[in-house]
Amino acid sequence: MPKDAVRILVTGAAGQIGYALAPMIARGIMLGPDQPVILHLLDIQPVAGSLKGVRMELIDAAFPLLQGILATTDVNEACKGVNIAVMIGGFPCKEGMERRDVMHKNVPIFKAQASALEQHAAPDCKILVVANPANTNALILKEFAPSIPVKNITCLTRLDHNRALSHISERLNVDVRDVKNVNIWGNHSSTQYPDANYATAATDSGEKSVRELVADDHWIDSEYINSVRERGSEIIKARKLSSALSAASAACDHVHDWIIGTAKGTWVSMGVSSDGSYGIQPDIIYSFPVTCQKGEWSIVQGLKINEFSREKMDTSMKELTREGSLAYSCLNQT
């Protein structure tokens, strides 16, 4: 039987990530090669012309799975009936701006988008926040869309997860598909903790611990962590623009695994609402290792946390609690 089309909202659709993401969705990379989609593309009025151009290109690409395109600058219209929302649009951090400045700009944006999703999205809508600060933007969205289940609001740390996999694959000179179960703990920021303690890589003699294969604790506990954390900055220096293609690909991976499910014995990293696991403050949006099945994520339980990891996980948690307080103070001023 033919499947009903899934309505997918992409905010900031005229931007670089949106421009890379839309054709990936239309080609079936996000939801599979037999799932029809209808794209809802939202952006702000000053880039309405660019948004129209994106719509025209999607039409010209003649994607068989793409059953419709709505391109609009009206947030309420864009949110009507959507099943999945990928929230890319936000105010970018510009040179000389502090995190507080970015927060002041983004809090009202996400408050308005949350209210529109609350009123108009499908009741089971699944939301992925990409725009930075992603964890705290997701927290604000959660606050102003109370009827949307908390478990349906997530943020993107899959890009960091993918970077962690690729750094290990390059170090070991193995295919990236043969590396699994890295963890990204915490905030999508410089305090995130890329943790390779449970990572494994496939070898001719079976799966082995990445730490054992690398045989260099300094690299695992220092260089690897810093290189994953700093990769985004390196890309900005190289291309004078932030990550777009890799961010779009990671967004597809995040939603794909959430909806379709993770492979047996494999977990991924997602920013989700903390339930207190691993001593993390409940209700903040924190990146955990998760498995997914039948459209639901579950935090991986039972991982032993050493003192080194505990300190780094707590540092990121404290940063997120401060960001949350700052965001709420911004709300009081809007």
What would you say this structure looks like, in words?
- It is a single chain.
- This protein is of the alpha/beta class and 334 residues long.
- 44% of the residues lie in helices and 19% in strands.
- The chain has ten helices and 14 strands.
- The chain has helices at 16-26, 48-60, 75-79, 99-120, 134-144, 158-172, 210-214, 217-239, 245-260, 307-332, and strands at residues 6-11, 37-42, 66-72, 84-87, 126-129, 153-155, 179-180, 183-185, 193-195, 200-203, 206-209, 268-273, 285-293, 296-299.
- The strands form four sheets. A six-stranded parallel beta sheet has the order 3-2-1-4-5-6.
- Strand 1 (6-11), helix 1 and strand 2 (37-42) form a beta-alpha-beta unit.
- Helix 4 runs parallel beside helix 5.
- The longest helix is centred in the C-terminal third of the chain and has 26 residues, at 307-332.
- The chain starts with 5 loop residues before the first strand and ends with a helix.
- The relative contact order is 0.13.
- The model has no long low-confidence stretch (mean pLDDT 94).
